[in-house]
């Protein structure tokens, strides 16, 4: 059975002279070996939460346990250097006067010279930087520098790694490759981690568990599949899937909207709400007297993205396979793929 590596109970932080808490009553559990992707818009409290776990910031309320030990509560605050945590930031933060091996060795304090050499070789192999041990940071690409930062954090074999937007300074190609590699590296080392990002695709791709934050709150936490297919709120749906929403009214077994009626698939307490239509769930059928008009079309390589206009002037965004080419101005009837239509309170 997996062990709990991190447990937060009602963790809260409000900075002086601010109106709202930066982190508000957050509770979560991370199992040994799992990667938690922490996702949310700018300013929602991701870095503050990470800093409290690392011990750089103290929470005002709640409890933080790492590996079963209380590291922070009302009466306890264990200093950062005793928490057995590795940290990787967005800006690499390498020591410019130390080469790769020197940077990696930095965190290895209580080891013999021989052990240090062995450990450097191990982590350099893990992050695939063999042959670059003697290079200085200015002689490395951004992606390579971030791998050094990862190796340095992993070298002392921390119980938990905290990564705060480690890929956001890299270009898209490097970013896509490195996010796969980081997952592989963490899994190979068996290290539990929290990976902060505001890129939803990155969070879904890298994580075993995704947490979505909004204004200090943790709105939902669950597997990537669960968060994507069953968002707990309209905010999560919008942020994670960039879905469309349309006002709807219940009539018998149907949700009626300005673009047509859709079958009710689950019991719903309210008679009205907003139905969610994911961009990839649109089925567009050309029809002369249909209510929706194609306004723009963008070719995205594997698919087309359409902007559709409803009778009330609302814009909907749809993505379809590239063999489905609809001219601008086409009127389309809308069906929704799948049989699990979700409705959120207005
Ligand atoms: N030292 C501080 N003093 C006062 N307010 C702070 C401090 N640090 C952060 N905040 C505020 O706390 C809130 C959360 O900030 P935080 O840096 O945790 O957000 P974030 O989710 O990491 O955002 P981003 O994605 O932009 O990095 C913000 O409103 C921010 O202005
Ligand atoms: Mg941040």
Strand order of the largest sheet: 6-7-8-3-9-10
Number of helices: 8
| Percent helix range | 10-25%
The profile of the biggest β sheet is: 6 strands, mixed
Order of helices and strands: EEEHEEEHHHEHEHEEHHEEEEEEEEEE
Using the alpha-carbon principal axes, give the shape: globular
Associated small molecules: adenosine-5'-triphosphate, magnesium ion
What is the CATH topology classification name of the largest domain? Answer: Rossmann fold
Structural class: alpha+beta
In terms of DSSP E residues, the strand content is: 25-35%
Radius of gyration: 24 Å
Explain this structure to me?
- The structure is a single chain.
- This protein has 346 residues and is α+β, with helices and mostly antiparallel strands.
- It has two domains: 4-238, P-loop containing nucleotide triphosphate hydrolases (Rossmann fold); 244-344, Beta Barrel (OB fold (Dihydrolipoamide Acetyltransferase, E2P)).
- The protein is 23% helix and 34% strand.
- It has helices spanning 46-54, 100-105, 113-126, 142-154, 172-189, 200-206, 224-229, 234-241; strands at residues 4-13, 23-31, 35-39, 61-66, 69-72, 85-88, 160-164, 192-197, 209-214, 217-222, 244-251, 254-257, 260-263, 272-277, 282-286, 292-299, 303-309, 315-321, 331-336, 343-344.
- The strands form four sheets. The protein has a six-stranded mixed beta sheet, with helices on both faces. A five-stranded antiparallel beta sheet has the order 13-12-11-14-20, with helices on one face.
- Strand 16 and strand 17 form a beta hairpin.
- The chain is globular and about 80 Å long.
- Residues 46-47, 164 line the site of magnesium ion.
């Amino acid at each position: 059975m997996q062990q709990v590596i991190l447990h937060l109970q009602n963790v809260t932080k409000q900075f002086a002279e601010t109106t709202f808490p930066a982190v508000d009553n957050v509770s979560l559990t991370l199992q040994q070996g799992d990667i938690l992707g922490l996702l949310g818009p700018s300013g929602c409290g991701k870095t503050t939460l990470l800093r409290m776990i690392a011990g750089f910031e103290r929470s005002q309320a709640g409890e933080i346990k790492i590996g079963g030990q209380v590291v922070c509560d009302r009466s306890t605050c264990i200093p950062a250097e005793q928490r057995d945590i590795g940290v990787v930031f967005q800006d690499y933060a390498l020591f410019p006067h130390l080469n790769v091996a020197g940077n990696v060795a930095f965190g290895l304090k209580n080891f013999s010279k021989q052990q240090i050499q062995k450990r450097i070789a191990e982590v350099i192999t893990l992050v695939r930087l063999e042959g670059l041990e003697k290079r200085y940071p200015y002689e490395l690409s951004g992606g390579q520098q971030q791998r050094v930062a990862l190796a340095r954090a992993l070298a002392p074999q921390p119980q938990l790694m905290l990564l705060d937007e480690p890929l956001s300074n890299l270009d898209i190609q490097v970013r896509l490759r490195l996010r796969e590699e980081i997952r592989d590296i963490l899994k190979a080392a068996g290290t539990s981690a929290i990976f902060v990002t505001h890129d939803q695709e990155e969070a879904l791709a890298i994580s075993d568990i995704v947490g979505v934050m909004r204004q200090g709150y943790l709105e939902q936490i669950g597997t990537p599949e669960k968060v994507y297919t069953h968002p707990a709120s309209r905010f999560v749906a919008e942020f994670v899937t960039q879905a469309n929403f349309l006002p709807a009214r219940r009539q018998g077994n149907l949700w009626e909207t300005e673009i047509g009626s859709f079958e009710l698939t689950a019991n719903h307490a309210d008679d009205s709400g907003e139905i969610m239509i994911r961009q990839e769930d649109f089925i567009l059928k050309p029809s002369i007297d249909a209510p929706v008009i194609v306004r723009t079309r963008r070719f995205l390589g594997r698919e087309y993205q359409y902007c559709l206009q409803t009778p009330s002037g609302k814009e909907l965004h749809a993505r379809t396979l590239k063999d489905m080419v609809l001219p601008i101005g086409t009127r389309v009837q809308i069906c929704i793929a799948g049989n699990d239509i979700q409705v959120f309170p207005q």
